[in-house]
Amino acid sequence: MRPEGLALRAARQPGRARNCRPEQLARLTRVMRRLQPSLVGIASLWLHAGRLTGLRPCEWRGSRLERGGANGQRPVDGPWLRVRNGKTTNGRGAGPSRRIDLGSLNPSQKEAVVRWVSIVGALGPGDFDRLQRRVTALLSRANALAFPNRRASVTLYTARHLAAAAAKCVFDQAGVAALLGHRSTATAGAHYGRRSRAQFAPPTARPDPALAARIAELNSGRGNTTRPITSQRPGDATPG
Asked: How many Cβ atoms sit within 10 Å of the Cβ of residue 18?
């Protein structure tokens, strides 16, 4: 195949959406319910929990709830979510794991995350991967029907982008990195949803302040990482 043919073929492949408006998500959910009513609840809960916490889809496997403050040194609204970082090679991740404070979520949001952690924790060997494939396939089919002219598809990873965009509205760069499990404070700004396109208002879950402080120190030579990214609300025009 000629190089221009390869480029054209690649251009036609759907990408991963970094943004999804609430009404679009509702439309996608309606289509999923028509396609596979037995799976739409799981798919919707996975997306919802991801939007609240910023986890990579794969990071739910092995996640668990913890009580108590960081290192037992401070009280917590809690619970905390302990997550094994999905990317730790070549110095990309913020250590082998991170803690996320669910105390800023309202009761229904907190219950959704706790319920999803419980569901994932009850899965047997190999079941998580099979479930992720089924949900991914359902989302792909639903995107094709709900948004036939849209090049980028809403995926499980889109929820992480939505969380990143919302987090940029309230946390500084180091805080966003701590929430997402990044070592570099530049990653979220370069590769994740912009705060100007945040469709879901905060709160999101909160990062571990101790981890955020360590990340700020590690990135101190790259500029003012403790400067708040923004205090603006979703929809403001400043790019992020």
From this structure: 19
Whether residue 129 is predicted with pLDDT greater than 50 in this model: the reply is yes
- Of the candidates 54, 18, 90, which has an alpha carbon nearest to the alpha carbon of residue 205? 54
Amino acid in the structure at residue 23: E
Determine, yes or no, domain membership for 26.
yes
d(CA 161, CA 187): 12
Is residue 166 a part of any domain in this protein?
Answer: yes
Contact criterion met (CB below 8 Å) for 176 and 167:
yes
Q: Determine the Cα–Cα distance for residues 166 and 28; give it in Å rounded to an integer.
A: 21
Query: Which residues constitute the domain of residue 203?
Result: 17-222
Span 43-81, pLDDT tens digits: 999 999 999 999 999 999 999 999 865 555 454 456 999
Query: Which residues, 6 or more positions from 236, have their beta carbon under 8 angstroms from its beta carbon?
Result: 195, 196, 230
Question: 212, 174 in Cβ contact below 8 A?
Answer: yes
Helices (H), ranges, the chain: 3-12, 22-35, 37-53, 107-121, 127-146, 156-167, 173-180, 186-191, 209-218
pTM summary value: 0.79
**Contacts of 136 by beta carbon, 8 Å cutoff, 6+ apart:** 155, 156
Structurally, the chain folds into a number of domains equal to: 1
In a domain, 8, yes or no: no
75 in a structural domain = yes
- The phi, psi pair for 152, rounded to 5°, reads -100, 135
CATH value at residue 144: 1.10.443
d(Cα 158, Cα 18) in Å, to the nearest integer?
5
Query: Distance between CA 8 and CA 5 in Å, rounded?
Result: 5
